[in-house]
Structures are given as C-alpha cells and as structure tokens.
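USER: Fancy drafting a protein?

ASSISTANT:
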Amino acid sequence: MAQPLNFVLNVPETPEDHGSQEPSPCDESEVHDSFHQLIQEQSQWVAEEGLELQQREPGAGGQETSGSGQQALPGPEDGLMHSTATLRILASMPSRTIGRSRGAVICQYYNRSVRLRRRVSRPELKGVGRSARPSLRLYDLELDPAALQEEEKRFLLVKELQGLPVAQRDHMLRGMPLGLAEKRCLREESQTPTGKQRGRQGPRGLFPCCGRLRDACVLALHSLGLGLLAGLHALRPWRYALKQIGGQFGSSVLSYFLFLKTLLAFNALLLLPLLAFIVGVQAAFPPPAPLGSARSFTGLELLTGGGRFTHTVMYYGYYSNSTLNQPCAPPPAGGQCSREAAGLPYSMPLAYLFTVGLAFFITCITLVYSMSRSFGESYRVGSTSGVHAVTVFCSWDHKVTQRRASRLQHDNIRTHLKELLAEWQRRRGSQSACGRLRRGAMRGLVWLLSLGTTLGCTVAVYAFSELMIKSPVSAEQEGALLALPVVVGLLNLGAPYLFRCLAALERHDSPVLEVYVAVCRNLILKMVILGILCYHWLGRRVGTLKDQCWENFVGQELYRLVVLDFIFVLLDTLFGELVWRLISEKQLKRREKPEFDIAGNVLELIYGQTLTWLGVVFTPLLPAIQIVKLLLVFYVKKTSLMANCQAPRRPWLASHMSTVFVSLLCFPSFLGAALFLCFAVWRVKPSSTCGPFRSLDSMYEAGKVWVRHLEEAGPRVSWLPWVHRYLVENTFPVYLVSALLL
C-alpha cells in the first residue's frame, strides 16, 4: 500500500532577512502568540498538497549539505533527495496554488503587507516593549466559523493596507489573485478618511460637483483609451480565423495563410506611393482625351482590360509627358512640350520614374528585412532543445477565460504536440541501403518526367505566342486576346496535378521534403513560362507594335493574366476540393477528404505576385487589383478548407516554411521582376504616341534631361548633378548596395 511522502522543509534564512528588513509578527511566535493559528492553517494547506512543514529541534536528525545551506529532503525509503529550491518551485506551481481559497490569499497578503508597513514606517521590534507591540488578541479572533474567520482576516488586511504608502498599496492590490470587484472593495475600504475627504474635495479643495466632474472625465478618457486599444487589437486581419486554422490543420496549412497575409501587406505598401504621386496627381489634372477614345461599356472589359479601360489612369498610355499644373496639348507629330509650358516644378516623367523606383526600393528593403527576421526566428540556435517540455509546461495562457478561446488554444497545443512527436519519430527512423538505392532511382525517374513536362509546357507557350503574333487580332475581336492567357492558365492548372501523381511514386518519408520538392517543380514551371512571356512582350511585341502604344498592350496582357489566374484558382477550388469531396463521400463511400495542397497554392500566390511586380510600370493600379484578389482568395480558400479538406494524415512541423516562402518570393520572383523592369527602363525605346516618356530613347533618359536642367539652373543645385553622376550612373555603388542587401 502506497504511503504518503513526508518531506521536511526547512527554509534557511537569507542574508536579506537580517539587515534592514524587520522580522514580521509571523516569524516571532514568542511575541505574537495569536499568529500561530495563521501559520498552522497554511501548514495544514501545504500538507494537503504532499508537503508537510515540521518544526525541527536544533540538532535533531536530517542531513545538511556542508557550506551550501540547503537541506537534504528524504523521499520514499530515503531514495529521492530534494533541495530547498526544488521544494520552493514545487510549492509555487499553478497545480499547487490553483485551489487556494480567498481566505488563504487574504492571509498571505496580510502577512506581506505587515512586513512592508513595518519596514517603511515602524521601528525595529527589538527596541519596542512587549506591551507596545500589536497583537491579534485585541481583535477577539474567533476561528471556528469559516465566514467569521474570513471577515476577521479581511479586516486585518484592510488595517494593514491603510498603514502602507499609496504606491505600495496599489502594487500589492494589483498582484493579488482576486477578482476585480474584490480588489475594488479592498481599495475603497483601505483608504484613510483623509484620503477620502481629499478625493471628495478634489486636489485643491474644489466643490464636490467639480471633483465628480473631473473623475467622470478621467474615467471617460481612460475608457476611451482602452476601447481604442481593444479596437486596434481587433483590427488585425483574420486574427480568429488564423488561430482556428492553426488549431485544426496545423502549422503547415497555417503557413499558406500567413504567407497570403504577408503578400497583402507588400501590395498595400507598393500601392501607397503609386496612388499618392502618380495616379492621384494625374487624376486631379487629367490630360486632354484623344479623339475616338470614348467607348461604351460592354462588360468584356472586366476580363480583357481593354475597351473603356484603355484611356484611364489604369494604364501607362494615359499619363502625360508635361507638368500637370498647366495644360499642355502634345504636338500632332509627337514630341515633348516646350520649356515654357513645362517650367512648373512637378514633372510627370520624373514623378513616374522616381516613384516606381522608390516603390521597388521600399519593397526590396521590406523583403530583405522580412526574410532576415523569419530566418532568425526559424533557425535560432538551440531552438529545438527542450521544446517538448516547453510545449507541455509553458504553452498554456492562463489569461484565457472565454470558452471559445480556450478551446482554440487547446487545439493549437494538441496539434503542435502531434507535429513535434511525428518529427521526433521520423528522425529516429532508419532505412536499408537497398531501399535507399531503389528510392533514389525512382525519384530520379520522377524528376526526369517532371522536367519533361515543364519543357513541353514551355514549348507550347512559345508556339502559341508566335501564333498570336502571326495572326493579329483586330480591335473588334477583343475576346480573342484571352487565348494566350487561357492557355497559360490551363497549363498552370494541369501541370501541378501531374506533378502530384508523379510524387506519389516517390514515397518520401518526410512530408516537409515532399512539400519542398513539389514547390521546386512548380516554381521551375511557372518561372520558365514567365520568362517566355517576358521575351514575347519585350523581344517580339515591341517590334510589331511600332506605331501603337506597346506599353498599354503589355499592361493589358498582365491584367488578363492576373484576372484569369484568379478564375482558375476558383475552378481549382471548386473541382479539386469540393467536387472531389462529394465524389469521395457519395460515390466511393469514403470518409476521407482531400488534403490541402500547400505547394500548389503557395506557388499560385508567388506567380500572381510576380505578375503584379512585372506590371507596375505598365499598369500602376495592378497592385490594387492584386489586393482585391488576395482578399477574395483568402475567404474562398478558408471556406473550402473548413468544408472540404482534412488535416494532414502525417503531422509535420512547418517551422522553416515561412522562411522558405519569403526567400522564394525574394530571389526568383522579385529579382526576376526587377531585372525585367530594369531592362525595360534602360534598353527598350518607349512608344512615341503615348505615355510620359514619348519621343525619348529610353525611360531612363528622363533623369538625364532633368540633370542637364539642374546644371543650367545655377550653382545652388550643382550638388544634385554630382550625386546623379557618381551615385546613380556609376556602377560601383549599385553593386555595393546589391551586395549589402544580399
């Protein structure tokens, strides 16, 4: 039969207990005999938790560590030894303090208030006679009835709180583990009559009505501040939805939605300078409309981006090449306005060039910062040591009081523990040499098939783009312009499903490696297709559209690709998740739902964001369209995930997934878009009939023209041409900044 553990707890006095600190009445049983009852009650409570406080006679038994001051605590059969520090930690754990009554809390804080008050305002007890010392006998303490006992303890606590300074009293009341109403009552009762009278009269003896008005204003401002803080906390997008997704589907699926939220912030940051310095200014000073530009709205413009949208602030061709504070009609044969008409300070070509460059620079800095911070959080040295113990003992938030929030936190901790245990089991697994060789051969074959599929898709896109050049589409056949975007969308939709079928033959042991391989294959496919499209636009279309605004055509192509990409995402969600779930449940009689395809969905986001960065110069409002698209994709994917998908069959920890996603967004996506735009700005000749850079040899030449005007303006601004010559045109600072960012 199990016997209860009897521990002997003898807490040695620390040096701090002797110096300036006054021994409290609880420690002097020979002075205050009535305090013995309170100490005995706390001793009985500790004994119920498995620890028994016993007074030991000097020199009686026990083992003592030499020189350390710690007591050796015998366990069952003297086999388990606990130090004093260990017992202190055990006695203060939530499992041993959660069941304490309000009376025990009041008694504990009463003892603490006595020590504080005597330390501040009373002399040492050894210098005071026994008759002058306070005693609980004067209060006629009755300990039998529980209610009366609690009231007496409360009365004593109030008396002791009244003797403390206001700051110490408020600090102690905040730390008490009591309800807010109980703390408020204790605070009101512990106020001295002088303080209450001062509170009624106000700080300077004002009338009672003025004091009440002041208190009401202070409370109103305090409540307003708390309301604003709560509103800002609640304005964080999808706070509850992300917690719900993480609790039910794990960190792997949650990483997709967190990445979508990051892209939303990047697009908002990119859109703000474009709206402030390009779109808003041009909308305030619209250029004269060309003849025959007014067209009726047919609805097809929402898909093609042409028609009525062509001569609007959405596209590059709408923006003028002059200052916007003074009207200037362009010459019939093209060319820039005269210097007299363009003499006002706000030049649209300079604003267009510098704003796009500034927006890309801010995006680059934000991307590098996000990647470095994510890398530091994911690959922190020593982050995996003791993670199981930390998750078990330190994950619960004791401030959670609502049932829904506690259920979400419970699901999050449970899913996180599953992921940690699955990761630990996979690390312990082993495989024979023949098995590794057989799987390596199979994976090599699957990679060859995947690369062959990518090559076939690339050839198909190139052949179809050449066909579109050889058979031009007239203005009346705008629907035919959707042919190339539809082909690209179908290839981007079908190829990932083929990659998933081939990945089933590989049988990766680690789900993390399986996702990384799928991401790599999809990334190669989409980047190669985008490379073919960039060559089609800048290498082929610029030459065939000499007398037209080729910038508008490229902007409309990118708009069509973004819109059709969103449509194919909806079709993929409908047929790939909803219809498959219905077929599995109704026809195949299976209870298994499809899993959420993390790799394919993440690459769709990266692909759409790359299209947005490619089209910033040609379609300044494309980031706004991308923001609307991301918002709709979030709610569509979240609804489909909750209704049609199940959690991963093999839980896995996606600790590094966010870092990988941001890295892929930075290097292949953003770097490729930056190279494309740099080539368009420096090497490609702009159209001579539209846009702010008409009749210039390149978009970058607008900066050179501005520098020449500054050199002619006088010596006051001579330092600006020097900065442009040695910091912008010189290649060394550009390489240095690029190296620092990398």
Summary: The CA atoms of residues 377 and 483 lie 45 Å apart. DSSP finds 24 helices and three strands in the chain.
